[in-house]
Amino acid sequence: QVQLMESGGGSVEPGGSLRLSCAATGDTGCAYDISWHRRAPGKEERSFVAGFNLDDTTNYTESVRGRFSIFQGNAKNTVYLKMNNLKPEDTAVYYCKTEPRPMPTTYGIWGILPGCRFLFDLWGQGTLVTVSS
Question: Residue 74: what pLDDT?
């Protein structure tokens, strides 16, 4: 069973930087990426922050583009979110989440294997980032 563990959150002043880590443990036999999301104070929904496209390019929500960077570490199952020039509106609990990738299925058709579909809804416990002066 796969588990996700975030770390690296904390309190910084506006303009500061943090690097969040998401470590995945366990083996599923499934291919997946890891994306980052956040829940701002007073909000019920988590919103997308950064992730990978199927061609391995990166994708960011507009408000963080140019300031945040998602990348995979040397350890295969660790993904980082480097956050620069942090703003008070970046204050949130940050979560990492698995994103299953297509794999070859019967007859050579690529898709998400039934046994991997649980990865659509696997989240870490979250790490708090507070940006204030």
Answer: 82
β-pair partners for 88: none
Measured distance CA(25)–CA(12) in Å, rounded: 29
Contacts of 43 (CB under 8 A, 6+ apart): none
CA angle (66 as vertex; 87, 20 as ends), nearest 5: 65
Nearest to 46 by CA among 118, 94, 99, 100: 94
Closest to 101 measured CA to CA, from 22, 29, 30: 30
**DSSP per residue over 35-72, as a string?**
EEEEE-TT-SS-EEEEEE-TTS-EEE-GGGBTTEEEEE
Other Cβ atoms within 10 Å of 7 Cβ, number: 12
pLDDT digits (tens, 9 = 90+) for 74-114: 877 899 999 999 999 999 999 999 999 999 988 788 999 99
The string of pLDDT tens digits covering residues 7-46 is 999 999 999 999 999 999 998 889 999 999 999 999 999 9
- Record the tokens describing residue 117, joined without a space: 């579909």
